[in-house]
Write a structure and sequence with these properties.
By secondary structure, the protein is of the alpha+beta class. The protein has one domain. 17% of the residues lie in helices and 43% in strands. It contains 2 helices and 5 strands, in the order αββαβββ. A hairpin with a 5-residue loop joins strand 1 and strand 2. The protein is globular and about 50 Å long.
Length: 95
């Protein structure tokens, strides 16, 4: 993969973290963490822009994101995780 993307690994990103309460019938009430990129985050917006210039589809994986595992040569996957109480890009790959 081009180094224009791998240079972002380890970059800190602004993630909003909240809690959602859901009633699950016989299981009762459960709380789930919900994550979203903060609209002020410049790093993710920069990666999105570069991916578009490279004709790549951008896909962001935040903690607890669910998605297909099919491989696509035209898709840039960016994984964000919590490291030492801060969110950062942990992996970037095409697939």
């Amino acid at each position: 993969m081009k180094t224009i993307f791998t240079n972002y690994i380890g970059s800190k990103v602004l993630v909003d973290e909240s809690e959602k309460i859901v009633e699950l019938n016989s299981l009762g009430t459960r709380a789930f963490k919900v994550y979203s990129i903060n609209s002020n985050d410049k790093i993710i917006n920069e990666i999105k822009s570069k991916a578009k210039k490279e004709s790549l589809i951008f896909r962001l994986w935040l903690p607890s994101t669910v998605g297909t595992m099919d491989l696509r040569g035209d898709r840039l996957n960016v994984r964000v995780g919590k490291v030492d109480d801060e969110f950062q890009i942990t992996k970037i790959y095409v697939g």
